[in-house]
Design goal:
The chain has about 450 residues and is α/β, with parallel strands linked by helices. It is about 55% helix and about 10% strand. It starts with about 20 loop residues before the first strand and ends with a helix. The relative contact order is 0.18.
Amino acid sequence: LTLRYVPAPLTMVAGIRKFPAAHHAVARDGRLDRPVRWWDIAIRSGPGGVTAEQRERLDWLLDDAVRLCLRSDVPYGAFLSGGVDSGLVTALMARRASEPVRTFSIGFAGTVDERPEAEAVARALGTRHHSFELAPADLRRLPRVACMVDEPFPDPIVLAMDLLAEHASSEVKVILTGEGADELFGGYVHHPTLRLLGRLSPALVPPLPAVGAAMARALPDAVIDRLFNYPVPPGSEARQRLAGLLREARSDVGRTLAYVSLFDAGDRDRLLTPDARAAMDGSGIGRFTSLIKSSSGAFPDRLWTAEYKTWLADNILFKQDKTLMAHSVEGRVPFCDHRLVELAAGLPMAARLKAGINKAELRAAAQRLAPDLPAARAKKAFMVPFDGAYGAEIRQLAGDLLGSGPFAECGLFRKDEVDLLVRRFATPTLLGGKKLLALVMLALWQREVLAP
């Protein structure tokens, strides 16, 4: 509920562990040897700017990584969002394809989504584009999806991936995606903010963090809405989250968790029963924070390295692999080509964040390699809407799942706090809606996977 995934090698089932990425082991006489790491990544941003030689090598590797991913004797296509990552992958595919590349995108009814931008990219590249819609009634498929992903995944956006994979499977058996670029090139909205606070932290002597937190708690809702610029108002919880971010500004781990956590420490204290809190050992959160603490180098490099080893593997690639393979489609990720990763890991800081622009060098590479691509739009929040018929379906799910059955009987959650989240969803906010949906997804896993 904090990190929004189950970090490897942990699982939700006692006695079962995930096999760690970039490791190997030998099975002997019915026992598995201790896994041994054979490859690693450590992002080390150097000073200065990107050299001409590095740019040439980056361009070649981007193109060659896509070339290798196109080795196939079955039809292939690409997921297209309209952003620079999937747009560049599709453009490089189109340069090599003998016929229009098949592309696929998905969005939501009556709300802001990525389909218009994806369609603009598809027109510019001449792809055979397919655009689909996740309708409110599709939320009723969530029990099947919860069973399919096999562990509690607290974001129902996995349903959009499932529908997209199902549609794509009728035409292709291999899909290329742009996953991995954000983790490698500093593409998330929290990256510039956390880096700025890290640079300012030596000057933030007490009581400045506490004063900043107090000021944040007094900000009007309109100011908070403009600061976060989300399609759904972030609500009063965002004010508290901003205050926590400023209060923890001097701590690398503290400010990171204050920004990226779904349920922060205060939320967990209110939501979990005393017995549940006593039983929690913090090993899941500790896996992520220990990577930030143990790595050497500047804070942004340590954060990106930790996210590459956890968020990318256990969240982004996890949901892609589960949904695609459920429909017998193979997912391929050019940005995870180990040669490209090793080059990008040593690029200077300006390649990732430059004058407030994230993924600066990747955007420049896209202009060099795919000049026909439309100008990249600002990153959007891709999320299931909370309003209208979508909200009605979510309320129905929450009512069916959270008040009775395995979730209510497990003794982990305080009923009054769960009921409060449900009541507040009548006027949904960004964080409140995401928290309620996380509990819905957990309850579905308990009912569909754990209880049987």
